[in-house]
Amino acid sequence: xxxxxxxxxxxxxxxxxxxxxxxxxxxxxxxxxxxxxxxxxxxxxxxxxxxxxxxxxxxxxxxxxxxxxxxxxxxxxxxxxxxxxxxxxxxxxxxxxxxxxxxxxxxxxxxxxxxxxxxxxxxxxxxxxxxxxxxxxxxxxxxxxxxxxxxxxxxxxxxxxxxxxxxxxxxxxxxxxxxxxxxxxxxxxxxxxxxxxxxxxxxxxxxxxxxxxxxxxxxxxxxxxxxxxxxxxxxxxxxxxxxxxxxxxxxxxxxxxxxxxxxxxxxxxxxxxxxxxxxxxxxxxxxxxxxxxxxxxxxxxxxxxxxxxxxxxxxxxxxxxxxxxxxxxxxxxxxxxxxxxxxxxxxxxxxxxxxxxxxxxxxxxxxxxxxx
Length: 372
Hints:
This protein has 14 helices and no strands. The chain is mainly alpha-helical. Mean pLDDT is 77; it is low at 8-15, 98-102 and 112-135.
């Protein structure tokens, strides 16, 4: 038998099938390593984003207080929402692929659908909606109506907070707004005739006790108005109703597009309310302080655009109960900032009422986390 005819004996693992199996194992191992690294990176990014939500949303009360020192509150809120809406809406309607460090930083599971493009990893695509050219999305009439309802309730509530903060400290305002999950629970129970468990009922009782304690501050002589307290509680109820309506009306599936439309609708109504209340004639641009302008810029860029984007990433990657911690972290941040920066008085009564409200929110949120 010639050498040419001699059969070749492969060592174990050296056959074609063996090589393919070993290559497949190597690929799988590499995919596991890359997947674990991507998961760790996603978790880190998500926690950073949640921290941003904690601090930024907690700080907005401070900057609203600074802004309304020399700006009419409804007009300031209208400017904040309209400018933020004009920035976000075109980016959502005319999506562009994310580039640079942000694209490399976010795993594909966290990249918004509109960012996918031809170079995106995600194969999930939204339903095609022609709007001149590929990639553009035209909101429907029903979506505009839904966003108008939600945006008016949520953002007019924000403007009303500014009205209340003319006579109420920023920390107290944040504690009163922290009752939103309690309003959510109560309104939802009334609309849906839902039976409340022991923990939610205990949360409602604690929250009512805390509100009663804080509302008593309006009778003090420290410049805190009972009317201001009632106005802010009304804003909390409006925000809760807007949150519930967001589940019942038609809104775009894209969070960025929905937010941009809500900002535009809410800002337009706030502009009308500001005109009706005479705030245009009361505005003196020369008398607006530099710190009020800076506060408005912070609320537009950081408070509305950055924090919203951070919330969108956090809510995609973290458990809902974890993200919902903003509901009771925000008021704590707001009280600390108001005390440290604006020298707002932190009385034992305020501490007691705040502890009751935050405890109530913890009970309610842990059982049924609020939607933002």
